[in-house]
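Sat 14:20. Reprocessing the chain from the morning session after the first attempt stalled halfway. Input below, unchanged.
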Amino acid sequence: MHNSSPWQGRYVTLDGMRGIAALAVALFHYNISQAPHGYLAVDFFFALSGFVLCRTYLPRWKAGLSTGAFMKQRMIRLYPLFLVGLVVTTLSAISDRYTGKGDIFEFGIIFGSLPFNLLMLPSPITMTMFPMNVPAWSLFFELVANFLLVLVLFRLPKLGLLVLCLAAGWWYGAAVLDNDGGNLGAVWDQFGISAVRTTFAFAAGVLIARLPQSRTRPRGWTGLACLAAIAAMLLLDLRSVPAGKYDLVCSMLIAPALVWVGARCEPPRLVAPAAWFLGEVSYALYAVHWALMEPLRYFKDDLGFDQVLMAFVYLGSCLALAWLCVRGIDVPTRAWLSAAMRGKPRPHSVMALMSRAEVNPAAVAKEVAGG
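Finished this time. Tokens:
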């Protein structure tokens, strides 16, 4: 049997950028001063998702993949970690009542929101769409975008995609300038803005995927420069530039450009393992980091621990929890669900998939959930 690296055949630069973006958005939520534009990671995520899903599923859709089958595969990919994130953030919110943080959420709010949030739907009883796990608003819109991908975007010509991007970008750009920043989307009052924000970035990613692609991706410093660029975009604080204009340029120009360049190059071989690892845990990190935010803020805010030290502790804890979720929950669950969707799985076949997932989760995930 041929043994290859788990990142073999993957867009490793895109993996690394996705992981860095997930770390930046987690750091933004933990200590905004250390990642002042971390929320722009969401725009990169949407553009990247549009690109990857179009490259992966457009040929299958042309070959007859139905909308229902596609959405089942996407739910298998998205829901297990979404559920884990919702569970751990809810437990964290309940624990705040007994750790000196106070009644941040009343039990009525918690249990009134959960029936909707468990269905991956926004809560109608709170201003925040997903009050226990606030960043999950983007996962809801990701699912909506996935549905529109097979319903509309796959059917549009490249000119149609460009017109859609321009129209959504015009609306979203006006909202960013009016708000003097692009940290928008988590609350009901911004539902329309969330929709056009998602539409622009996701359609831009699909358009990039429809452009001619190189058959080879040279390995070298260009890939490393992409990793540095995404970090700089999210972490820099250019006080001389108005926040609204900075966010507009980053979300509408730089983020799509990084997807375009990152899809055409690979980082140096020495960097590839770290880039792959960050990409592998990025979704889990995004899904669960909110649960660790308040507990670890206690050391920074109440006990006065060094902020830089606590940032590393927090991000390290997020990475560890995310990796445990990937290995112990996400890949085995997706393996079982995918096998069940194809027919009643034989017990030994599911156990074999779980065993292989311990060794090479990326390969098994790609096999059982369509890449």
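The first helix runs from residue 12 to 30.
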